[in-house]
Amino acid sequence: MSAATSLREEATELLQELIRVDTVNPPGNETRAASVLRDYLAEHGVEATLVAREPERANIVARLEGGNGPSLAFVCHTDTVLADPAEWQRDPWSGDLVDGEVWGRGALDMKGQVAASAVAFASLWREGFRPAGDLLFAATADEEVGDCFGLEWLVREHPDLVRVDFALNEGGGERVELGGSTYYFCGVAEKMSAGFRVRVRGRSGHASTPGIADNALVKAAPYITRLGSYRPAPWLIPEVERFLEVTLGAVPSAEDALAQAREELGSRAAEIVEPLLALTLSPTMIEASQARNVIPAVCDLTVDCRLLPGQRPDDVEDELRTVLGDGDWELEWIERVGGSRSALDTPLWSALDDFVATVEPGARLVPSCNAGFTDSHYLRDAFGTIAYGFFPMRAMEYELAVRLEHSADERVPVDDLELGVTALRHAALTVL
Ligand SMILES: [Zn+2]
Predict the structure, then answer these.
(1) From CA 101, how far away is CA 416, in angstroms rounded?
(2) How far is the CA of 114 from the centre of ligand 1 (A)?
(3) Nearest Cα residue to 83 out of 39, 6, 25, 164
(4) Nearest to 274 by CA among 200, 189, 369
(5) Lower CB count within 10 Å: N or C terminus of the chain?
(6) CA–CA distance from 61 to each of 11, 51, 374 (Å)?
């Protein structure tokens, strides 16, 4: 059996074991997965540390000590979202291997990467790899809910365990073909989720006599329309600039970017670029009267708002107030999560770019900016870590993977698991 074959099988078997322990969050029970990982690592001579805010919600961290050079972490989460067996063709916790794919909840998000990270780490360890700086493996709890049992908690309570210069996490690695060329995405930034509420005020009254009241629901209608149809002026963040530079060969103006991406690269590229040219606004919820026959004095409109990395609510509030115009309303921010970024030109970027060109000649690495967020922002915020999302997928089409995540029949091709192990090992061997 070749070394490559055994890493492939090692990752497959470990993933099957991880899927077979139910770590649906809530409640999580991630200690089950941490124990599987501790036993696997121990078999290969690696001593790992379990550390937990509550006994059943353990994180696991292992460290291969190096010199004083830069450190790198393989970061991943062991919890999953729920699964309804009635929707699935197979038991979501079977870990079945069928036609070269491992089935089960978490196969893509993200026990596959957990298994690949552990195997990459253990294989380097037993080969006697002596890195220039520390190599870390951190499989953490509670990413899907975020009640502070996982990386957020570790960064706060045990910073010395997870302080690191570079990190590879979920949130990237998708392979796309645009304009006849192949690209792999590397997640370097994320938008900030900054939802807000517009409270519109009127005067209550009996619904049978609308003339005596001032209906807040009706007054809210124009604000919904204004916010929903608002198109802010576009501008190019560095991540989009680089994406256009690599894919188009030159950077167009912010005003021309969308049209040019659509024309030269296709509609898929336009879909990627459009939400990254400006903040987005989507009115999504409305609450007014609790009774059919009572005209509401108050109407609350909730708006999903995603800011570009670098933008803060304070920067855009005046703009939003102008969009709303005069009237009886109050604007209140109700959330601000994510919105971090890592630099583009780093040794880790070069290592991944080089990896992509090696496994697929002609392919290039391009930055992506996620609309959602991962645990990477905890590391970026606390330590200034260069944290990228990268787990390459080639055997499974990106469109299919997106459909299966958090949905029924989630599965991962073994070919992609193996590609992931190779990518992570390459990054460690190059950066360290
Ligand atoms: Zn995930």
Answers:
(1) 9
(2) 10
(3) 25
(4) 369
(5) N
(6) 18, 8, 18
Taking Cα atoms as reference points, which of 105, 139, 149, 101 lies closest to residue 119?
Answer: 139
Cα(354)–Cα(392) distance, rounded to whole angstroms?
13
Question: Residue 7 C-alpha to ligand 1 middle, in angstroms?
Answer: 23
Tell me how far apart the alpha carbons of residues 31 and 38 are, in angstroms, rounded to a whole number. 10
Question: What is the Cα–Cα distance from 350 to 221, expressed in whole angstroms?
Answer: 50
Tokens of 138: 């951190």
Tokens (6 digits) for 84:
């309804």
Asked if residue 4 has pLDDT above 70, the reply is: no
Bridge partners (DSSP) listed for residue 167: 73, 387
Residue 20, sorted as left (phi over 0), alpha (psi -120 to 50) or beta, turns out to be alpha
The stretch 410-423 carries a mean pLDDT of 98
Whether 22 contacts 29, CB under 8 Å: yes
How far from the centroid of its chain's Cα atoms is residue 18's Cα?
21
Q: Ligand 1 mean position to 170 CA, how many Å?
A: 6
| Location of structure tokens 């491992």 | 102
**If you measure from the C-alpha of residue 144 to the centroid of ligand 1, how many angstroms do you get, rounded to a whole number?**
7
What is the number of alpha carbons within 13 Å of residue 174 lying toward its C-beta?
18
- The closest of 333, 321, 320, 314 to 281, measured between CA atoms, is 320
The model's pTM is 0.91
Distance (Å) from CA 74 to ligand 1 centroid: 14
pLDDT band at 2 (very low <50, low <70, confident <90, very high): very low
Domains of the chain: 7-178+339-431 (3.40.630.10), 193-227+279-336 (3.30.70.360), 233-275 (no CATH)
